[in-house]
Design brief:
mainly alpha
Length: 398
């Protein structure tokens, strides 16, 4: 995103944000939900057959949604931007690659191959950049960004499948018998994550409608710099915790396992926030021109929310362990409603919007803690809230 901003205007970055909104909806409604049930789905044939049906329908729905999005952009935006819209065509295939990765991914998670998965994700990210960066430099268009997303998903699907086969996935599937599917759990998780998507993206949708595509592009850059590295930490932490809590029913054990993992994750997030601040000050400011100065000022307050979401994202597996995932749905609705003041603030000041964003995440964390009850990882929660408040106070004082 930062390299893209060096070559294109905020309007073009805002144009890229629209299909990414649809893609993140796909990730939330389908990919995020299926990840909640993919590991236990290897316990019986009925659940595995459900994964196969999911793979087929997720691919179809994703391709249709992305194609329709690009068609709408073609009709709405002026002809001067049509070459940039054509450059986004690789995004149409992304849902197919993503849906075909879910089965081998689940098998590798079931086998606790976290180090292998991390190395695999790092490797495919590097390979995708090797191809997409020269394309970006040569074309100075959205083609490089779109190719990077597609190649990362496609390479991960191919290499994850090969790793799972070598580990004995096919032999395991021949041994499983009949059982109960997890379709109901998938539906509950899907609604939960759809509301989560609305919570996370409503501010962008409203901002694009209220202040236009250029303002959306500025806001999107600030959030990409501040949030993307932290989202990777939050997502991976939640994935690990979900597997560790599989089959755990005693509340004290749920709390202990969550606290043990999340304290380390919050500590890593603190280091990440500091690194993002230093990188913004000494790398991005000299690299980008003055049109991006305000988004860069918003990076630090937005990055403080990493500390909060490191915990909140992992409270979904805690709620699932307690059988309370549906309790999270009304809390996500609150998050959607709180997107309104964020969008209004962003129409006036990107920096103010970042502070509103942080405040919303704090409110949602407190509500989720109430839903988790005695299973709440208290020490990790207090650490995350305390450090984010101290960071915000220091910036306010300076």
């Amino acid at each position: 995103m930062v390299l893209l901003a060096q070559y294109v205007t905020p309007v073009v970055v805002g144009l890229y944000a629209w299909p990414m909104l649809v893609l993140t909806f796909y990730y939330s409604a389908l990919d995020g939900a299926i990840r909640q049930v993919v590991v236990p789905s290897f316990s019986n044939k009925n659940s595995y057959d459900f994964l196969l049906r999911y793979r087929r329908w997720a691919s179809i729905c994703g391709v249709v949604a992305m194609t329709a999005t690009l068609a709408v952009l073609w009709l709405v935006f002026p002809t001067s931007l049509h070459p940039q819209i054509v450059a986004l065509l690789p995004l149409i295939v992304v849902p197919v690659a993503n849906s075909y990765a879910i089965i081998p991914l689940g098998f590798l998670q079931r086998a606790d191959r976290w180090r292998s998965l991390a190395n695999l994700q790092l490797g495919v990210a590097g390979l995708s950049l090797v191809v997409s960066l020269p394309v970006l430099f040569l074309t100075k268009s959205l083609l490089g960004a779109a190719l990077q997303v597609l190649l990362a998903e496609l390479l991960f699907a191919v290499f994850a499948h090969r790793s799972a086969v070598r580990l004995g996935m096919l032999q395991h599937l021949r041994t499983i018998g009949a059982g109960r599917t997890l379709a109901a759990e998938f539906r509950h998780a899907s609604w939960f994550f759809i509301l989560g998507w609305l919570q996370g993206q409503a501010d962008r949708i409203l901002l694009g409608a209220v202040a236009g595509t250029a303002a959306l592009g500025s806001y999107n850059l600030a959030m990409a710099v501040a949030r993307n590295p932290g989202d990777a930490v939050s997502s991976s932490t939640a994935n690990v915790l979900r597997v560790r809590l599989d089959g755990v029913e005693e509340l004290r054990e749920v709390r202990t396992k969550a606290d043990h993992l999340l304290i380390r994750a919050v500590a890593l997030s603190v280091v990440l926030v500091v690194a993002l601040d230093l990188g913004t000050r000494f790398v991005l400011r000299p690299l980008l021109d003055d049109s991006w100065s305000k988004p860069l000022e918003a990076v630090f307050p937005a990055s403080l929310s990493i500390l909060i979401t490191t915990v909140t994202w992992s409270l979904a597996p805690v709620l699932m362990a307690r059988g309370r995932l549906r309790w999270g749905a009304p809390i996500k609705v609150v998050g959607v409603i709180l997107a309104v003041p964020i969008a209004v603030a962003a129409a006036h000041s990107i920096v103010l919007a970042a502070w509103f964003f942080l405040a919303r995440e704090l409110v949602l964390l407190l509500l989720l803690v109430g839903a988790c009850g005695r299973a709440t990882p208290v020490r990790a929660t207090l650490l995350a809230v305390g450090v984010s408040l101290i960071g915000g106070a220091v910036v306010g004082f300076l």
